[in-house]
């Protein structure tokens, strides 16, 4: 179906541009303590695939990733000409900090990571839209967790 005249140049182009799969989530730490649920649970799940060991006690960890707050919001984004809701905006906001034992100043001071999605609303299928909303919030948790882990990796390289 695909000729070699198309496939081989495409593979060479991909290889030459520096494309690389993400692979293991390396944050540059041996151990980390991440208590809590929601995004913290997603972070622990992501780290379990890599070389960093998630420990159950803060005293056993190199650093402590503290999720200070996590909030979900749903606001009306668009209204139709008849005054009905057409779209909602979903927002996930997570405030976190990274602290190391024995240091007064956090490696990452209190920082907020947010993610937003727009979801259309259909009065005929409210339960389906509720399921879609939960799936979008889960996707947003994964996105925020990955963003936080990238910040942790930067802080670990800089400070450790």
Which features would summarize this protein structure in a list?
single chain, 160 residues, alpha/beta, Double Stranded RNA Binding Domain, 3 helices, 35% helix, flat
Describe this structure in words.
With 160 residues, this protein is α/β, with parallel strands linked by helices. The protein has one domain: 2-Layer Sandwich (Double Stranded RNA Binding Domain). 35% of the residues lie in helices and 31% in strands. It contains three helices and five strands; from the N terminus they run H-E-H-E-E-E-E-H. The chain has a five-stranded mixed beta sheet, covered by helices on one side. Helix 2 crosses helix 3 (126-159). The chain is flat, with a radius of gyration of 21 Å. The N and C termini lie far apart (52 Å).
Concise account of the structure shown:
The protein is of the alpha/beta class.
């Amino acid at each position: 179906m695909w000729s070699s005249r198309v496939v081989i140049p495409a593979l060479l182009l991909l290889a030459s541009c520096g494309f690389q799969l993400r692979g293991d989530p390396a944050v540059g730490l041996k151990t980390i303590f991440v208590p809590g649920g929601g995004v913290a649970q997603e972070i622990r799940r992501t780290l379990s695939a890599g070389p960093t060991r998630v420990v159950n006690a803060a005293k056993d960890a190199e650093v402590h990733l503290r999720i200070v707050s996590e909030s979900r919001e749903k606001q009306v984004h668009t209204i139709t000409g008849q005054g009905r809701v057409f779209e909602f905006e979903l927002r996930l906001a997570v405030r976190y900090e990274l602290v190391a034992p024995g240091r007064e100043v956090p490696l990452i001071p209190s920082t907020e990571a947010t993610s937003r999605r727009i979801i259309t609303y259909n009065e005929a299928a409210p339960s389906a839209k509720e399921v879609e909303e939960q799936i979008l919030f889960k996707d947003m948790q994964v996105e925020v967790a990955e963003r936080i882990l990238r910040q942790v990796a930067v802080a670990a390289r800089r400070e450790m």
